[in-house]
């Protein structure tokens, strides 16, 4: 069992790598080798099997094809230009998110072994003039270039699977919070930073009002779910390989109160409320009310409460202890 | 007003060219030049304005960019590898239908003039595990590579329009019947040939049973609707630029009886009923029950009866008089 993680330098990729290192198995088979690929060579991970590191630009077909010479049985394709950057730099987003993803599916197809490919789609595929709650068969109606590129990736994932070229799975990730590390160019970046920075003793700016609602999942749960996505038998997935992951809906205000319950008043005081129209223009197009019926039937799960997300962050990811 | 028709050698492209030559105007402005492009230089059309002819492979970015030096105000992008061929030759379908369409949108964007682009999508974007009737917000769930490529083209069309790069419109064409000319590699080819060939005195094979139902539109109406699609003001289209064109639902049996009413018993006797699993595998994934609410509100229209379609064929397109 050889596993390839594209986007293996990102925080989800690294957490999947560590989880696989801990379990040592995937799909009931011992892992013999792990390949971590990203635009820059990813940090290594201690593991009971060999780990290789690759600096690869998947938007370059030759580089992508060369990467697949490692002959993976399971591929996690997590690499993407995030929403804010894909909106600001249209060509970059198209090149990586559309053509890079196409190159990944083409390279997987060229193996001739029908590898399992877990492609991380996003709840950014929803939006605009659609009814809520969002069901498994709700029209994908993205309101950002990032969302359009993810929806296109899902269509390709399903068609390559239907043709028997790959065994694809395209779970739509909720907003992941509380993410570790630093703020990034994702329009959703604040949905972690307003908790992470205060819990780490720093101030953070919230660009939306407390009544803004989002569909979220913790890093711990998304890693658990993505690994489960690789393990689900193909026959249980049906024809359509894109589906929403389970998550919880909550307003920013409710989430802040959950943080207060776990960590007290001090972190809450470190949030500055300053609405930002550029962020609002993107995130107001997203939809929080999702019923992930298919994912629940497949055994995928959400967090029990946002208090849990705060606790997971304190257990797994906090980098600077609160003052 | 300069008009470019990509796929201008196809029968719909030629009919649009002739209709524009007759009216002399589009979007309320006099047409000054018409550019007809196709993989082979299209036949000329008599017109009161200049007509140029281009042999262009749109899957070649340089050729596509060069074509757009004609600086069109309105583009009809009708070129495609048809369903049966895109299913049999996956790489060819992806190259032309996905990357060719991307090249067209990119070349239109590069003009900087936000041209109107009418992209012919298809009712092949529907299928699989979806509810009927199909509404404007039904999930696009294609069951063929052709349908997936058209759905991707719609997502691009909407995103390029949202970004202000083009003013796109992506009407989903019903099955067009009765098409003139010869049978082609489209899985739907029989839906014209079983009427066209008998009306022209020849035998034809029907690969489905009489109870097979389809969503159809005549060539005359599709041309009228595509020209209307170019003329609809952008503000009436809303955010989402993909929508089903009006059509009629009928079974092959009902359509054959309509032909009998218009043309008598002899043509009906020339149909040979021979079910073909390869065709059935594709066309049984399509859906005939569509409610094109948005298109009807935009003033687009269907035929009044299949008898009309037979009459239109006899008036406009018959090439060999029936014996």
Your description of this structure?
2 copies of one chain form a homodimer. Chain A has 323 residues and is of the alpha/beta class. Chain A contains 13 helices and 15 strands. Chain A folds into 2 domains: 2-176 and 218-244, 3-Layer(aba) Sandwich (Rossmann fold); 187-214 and 248-316, UDP-galactose 4-epimerase, domain 1 (Alpha-Beta Complex). In chain A, strands 1, 4, 5, 6, 7, 8, 9 and 13 form an 8-stranded parallel β-sheet that branches. A 3-stranded mixed β-sheet of chain A has the order 10-12-14. In chain A, strands 2-3 form a two-stranded antiparallel sheet. In chain A, helix 5 links the parallel strand 8 and strand 9. The relative contact order of chain A is 0.13. At the A-B interface, helix 4 and helix 5 of A face helix 4 and helix 5 of B.
SSE blueprint:
2 copies of one chain form a homodimer.
Chain A: E1 2-6, H1 11-23, E2 25-26, E3 29-30, E4 33-38, E5 50-55, H2 61-67, E6 74-77, H3 83-88, H4 90-111, E7 116-119, E8 121-122, H5 145-162, E9 167-173, E10 175-176, H6 190-199, E11 204-206, E12 213-217, H7 219-231, H8 234-237, E13 242-244, E14 248-251, H9 252-263, H10 265-269, E15 271-273, H11 277-283, H12 293-297, H13 306-316
Parallel strand pairs in A: 1-4, 1-6, 4-5, 6-7, 7-9, 8-9, 9-13, 10-12, 11-15
Antiparallel strand pairs in A: 2-3, 12-14
Helix pairs in contact in A: 1-7, 4-5, 9-13
Radius of gyration of chain A: 19 Å
Instruction: Determine the mean pLDDT of chain A.
Output: 95
Which oligomerization state do the chains in this entry correspond to?
Answer: homodimer
What proportion of the residues of chain A form beta strands (DSSP E)? 15-25%
By CATH, the topology of the largest domain in chain A is: Rossmann fold
- The CATH architecture of the largest domain in chain A can be named as 3-Layer(aba) Sandwich
Count interface residues per chain for the largest interface.
A-B, 28 and 28 residues
Question: How many helical elements of chain A?
Answer: 13
| Total of domains of chain A | 2
Q: Give the overall shape of chain A.
A: globular
CATH superfamily of the largest domain in chain A: NAD(P)-binding Rossmann-like Domain
Uncertain stretches of 5 or more adjacent residues of chain A: none
Helix content of chain A: 40-55%
Structural class of chain A: alpha/beta
Q: Using DSSP, what is the number of strands of chain A? A: 15
- The rounded distance between the terminal residues' Cα atoms of chain A is 45 Å
- What's the SSE pattern of chain A? EHEEEEHEHHEEHEEHEEHHEEHHEHHH
* Sheet having the most strands of chain A: 8 strands, parallel
